[in-house]
Amino acid sequence: MRPVMHGDVTALARALMSVPADMRNQLCNLILSQTHSADCYRKRFNKPHPDWGNGSLMAMARGMGLQAEPELAHVDYCDCLERVFAGLRRWRLSQSNPTRSSGTAAPLG
Q1: DSSP secondary structure, 58-93, as one string
Q2: Among 52, 69, 70, which residue's Cα sits nearest to residue 61?
């Protein structure tokens, strides 16, 4: 996965807002895994993945359609931001674990 920027985090949070709260962790995990796969594809074939983009979270999120960015006082948006940060933390930890078996995101609770 490419280095994660502020815009990536907010774009993914906005994409998560489009699904019910009980589906957000699952969608976040899926997007993190597909983003990693897209980045591997881009590196191998020197072109973006046909469905998942260039390996950035923003490209994946944009493909899902994004809601306008709300203010930080918006409770659902804060919930989604928290889920993105938790997902990224788990994914990074899984990548640094020498016994990991794949590049998929560690499931969120």
Answers
A1: HHHHHHH--PPP--TT-HHHHHHHHHHHHHHHHHHH
A2: 52
Alpha carbon distances (Å) from 92 to 2, 5, 86: 12, 14, 10
Q: Could you tell me which residues are beta bridge partners of residue 53?
A: 49
Lookup result for tokens 């993945």: 49
Cβ(52)–Cβ(63) under 8 Å? yes
Condensed to tens digits (0 to 9), the pLDDT of residues 22-66 reads 999 999 999 999 999 999 999 999 999 999 999 999 999 988 888
- Here the tokens at position 79 are 């919930």
How far is residue 11's CA from residue 4's CA, in Å, rounded to a whole number? Answer: 11
